[in-house]
Amino acid sequence: MARREPEEHQFVHRRTGHIMVAYDQRLYVWGGFMELPHSEPYTVMTQSHTIYHSAIDVWVYDPLLDTWFRKMSRGDIPLQLSGACAAVHQHYMYLFGGLANGENDFSVITNSLWRLYLPTLTWELLTPDGDLPLACDKAACWVYKNRFYVFGGFGPADNLIQRLHRKVLFVRDAVYSRGWNDQLVYYDIETNSWVWPETYGERPTPRAAHSADIVGDTVYIFGGRFKNTRMNDLHCLHLISNHWSGNLTDSEVQNAPEGRSWHTFNFINDRKAVVYGGFNATQQVLKDIWILNIEKQLWQRVDNDNAKPALWHTSSIAYPGEVFCYGGLRNNILDYSVPKDHAEEMLVLRFSPPTLQRLTLEAICRYSKRLQRQITTLPQNLQLVLKYRSAVEEIS
């Protein structure tokens, strides 16, 4: 049965440019902005109908209870940001970069690094040694061992580029004083320092709004935008040898996803990754789903009737084989003459069956009125879960 969210939940579910990570089988959502409904067109330079979400609030989704909890964080609260990137290492979430909410949103781009201690939701602004990454938004990140990696992004040029000219390629945009980069840098958690590793092989072109995920000792990077091109190239970097693979997508000999940015890419096991949605070269919002088999280097498109168009959404794996996709927009983000259509629900793409416990709980919830007497015989913790879910379902 469809349920109506409380009013504050309806507000928070209009969100894009946010981050979402999985921790302890829950999903943590922070940041981003919301497009308000409007009747009059507005221009790209004013964005008068954009509101950034609170930097204090952290929203937690519990899949078992199927509900959201609003939590208040503390400590060194970050700026209000969109387009930041985040990843989890042990009990911490590391957050880098993003476009800050200032008087001129197009100039306030950061290269700051924060971390959030997830058990207590306490923020800390980190000040590592070494050369900082370039300030940017729409970069991709991942964690490997005790390192938090950042690749690519879009932002301003600065004097650091000259010092790092052998390690970073920066390509300026033809309109703005910003551009795309191919930076690869990691934060060494043990030494509290930024490190610029030497790499080998054919490096990916600069890009932004791309995606990345790690499996074993290898990270895979897919798509993104560079200049006027939205790409479908696939690259991997072996993190022990620091060797790039070169482009692994050959669209002439195999079926492959079309070029895109603002999509998601997640490994569902050690052999297969899933690409969902994004924004293509003709400014269409996509809803297609593709599975990449890294052993065979083959793409396969799969059908899912629940999938809807989405760009600049987020995705995480809270349970094995299940991709949780949240937020984003359903229509052209660059068309400022029309109201923006937010994707307000949590979409779950399942590639393996849920546990027997979760299947049973979902079935009991559907028939809770018929099973009232039997429910009282269940263990107390399961009764509490069912009681909570039933209470939420009654909000209509």
UniProtKB/TrEMBL annotation:
Statement: the UniProt record of this protein carries the keyword Repeat: yes
Keywords: Kelch repeat, Repeat
Domain of life: Eukaryota
One Pfam family of this chain: Kelch_KLHDC2_KLHL20_DRC7
PANTHER family from the UniProt entry: KELCH DOMAIN-CONTAINING PROTEIN, KELCH REPEAT PROTEIN (AFU_ORTHOLOGUE AFUA_4G14350)
Protein name: Kelch domain-containing protein 2
